[in-house]
Amino acid sequence: MNMKRNRNILARLAIGMGIFCVVLACSGCIYQWIGTALDERRLSPHGELIDVEEGHLHIHCTGKGSPTVVLDAGGGGNYMSWHRVQPAIAADTRVCAFDRMGSGWSSPLSQPHRSREYAIQQEILLHRAEIEAPYVLVGHSLGGQNAQIFAGRNPDDVLAMVLVDSAHPDLYTVLPEFEGQGRRTLSTMRIAARLGVVRFMLATGLSKPLPYWEELSDEQRHMFRALISRPSHWDAAYEMNARLTESAKQAREAEPMPDVPLVVITHGIGDMFEGLDPETAARAEEVWRQLQNDLASRSSQGRLVVAGDSGHQIPVEQPEIVVEAIRQVINAHNSYRPR
Asked: What CATH number belongs to 48-335?
């Protein structure tokens, strides 16, 4: 009798816990839905929404003049990833940061994308937004690999380039153990976003997604929280991560970058390979530096700069190095005379 009674109690507890979890999940979904609706009512894009075949892409341009500096964020980033770089460059010339499909204010992904697809969409975006060449391409991480493909496809339109801790086409060939790093976390975040957990963590201050978070204005913090609370943001980040080796293959098969002024900036603080064992991480850091040197050697006017006080997030950790590099490549083009 006691065993039967205990089984009944355990069964009731299990049912109760199940009901509690369902109610909690439903409450989180409702919280997320209401929060998203309020965000869309209160906030609006800083830039323009440009129609492309799959939806619309968001691009935010400031400053005046030529050339136009085009900023492409790393995987999981958006136009606000350049909030410490864009204002400084806008004092010199026109500068545009955009959101790839699935990120920021752009439409959610409707199909898988790789670096070549992103580069082609960038071509369409610049054309339809009537942003004329020449361009100075600035790409961080995956955005750097996209920039390499774009430059190979449009060599006459590219004046100069800055690659900021850029992905290298050979990365997953040389470091196969790095492929897939972070994918489990992104998978979890996709679920957490739908349940309102990401929104709650950001709204309560339990998570601060950017270095120097406190330097942002209230409006900037609200905007950034709204954009990365969306499930579509994490869907795009996961899909990007799941296709990194395919993107790298596309970059290997792409036309070479033009021989233009080029600065390759890489991190000085090793934080990219923290998920690996110490010995493997140390080897990975050495290989990463070699690959960054290789990128710099792909132009006769290329050089490598080390951001000594930064991890991988150089645009927000040491933006002054990125700003200076952009100014240097523009000046190098203006003063360069082929022999």
From this structure: 3.40.50.1820
